[in-house]
Every structure is written in C-alpha cells, then in structure tokens.
Amino acid sequence: MKFLVLNGPNINILGIREPEIYGRQSYDELCALIKEHAKKLGVQVEFYQSNHEGDLVDAIQRSYFDGVDGIVFNPAAYTHTSVAIADAVKGVGIPTVEVHISEVSEREAFRQVSYIRDVAVKTITGRGFAGYTDAMDFLVKLQGDKK
Question: What is the pTM of this model?
C-alpha cells in the first residue's frame, strides 16, 4: 500500500510560522513522524509540499498514474480557495483525507469554507501532527474494508 502525504503553502515553514497555532516542530520533524508511523503500518509513503496551486494539482494527478492508494492532504490556505485542487482530488478518485493541524472551526470565518471537504473521504482537524497519523490509520482501515 502506498500513500502520498501532500502539503500546501507554508507547511514547509512549520516551527517558524505562528508557533502558537501550529506548534514549534518543523516540517522535517513532521515527515520523520509520518515515516516512523508508515513503517509501523507497513505502508510506503511519499511526500510532496508546494506553495503553488498548479504543482499540487500535478502531484494529485501524478499520484493516479503512480498507483497511490490514498492521499493524506493538508491543502492549507488552498482549502478555502481552490476549486482546481478539489476537482483534481475528485477526478483521480483516490481516497483522500483532508488534514489540518489547527482546529479551523475555531478560527477566522474564511477558514470555515473548505472546497476539499466535499471530495475527501474524511476531514481531521485540530489534532496537530497526530492528524496525519490518524489519517494514515483511517486509510489503512478503509483499504482493508474494501478487500
């Protein structure tokens, strides 16, 4: 089983960016945590982060041709603005879990809008880095339920 862990804008500066909201751990620490969890689950994991909308669309489309079984996706600010990204997720049909480090429901009004939520199989918010591992657990169970 292979998962793509996809992250949108500014996730690469975790630990620097608003640590009171996103914590003090870095993007590299997030990736290390995910790799460790993937090893426990016996799944392959690939990472991709971009600050550019089209690059994220390309990564989603590429995942279809690369045989990815599930996507763990923090679209970050594009959550609230990108129909193109939502269309890509819907278009490839790969089970995608929307993840947000912070509890977006308790933040600014514009963060209440998610174009991804309607095309994701699940949304996890406010769990910090654990949201990513929760998403992986969900996708493993989902794949197992399909068998």
Answer: 0.93
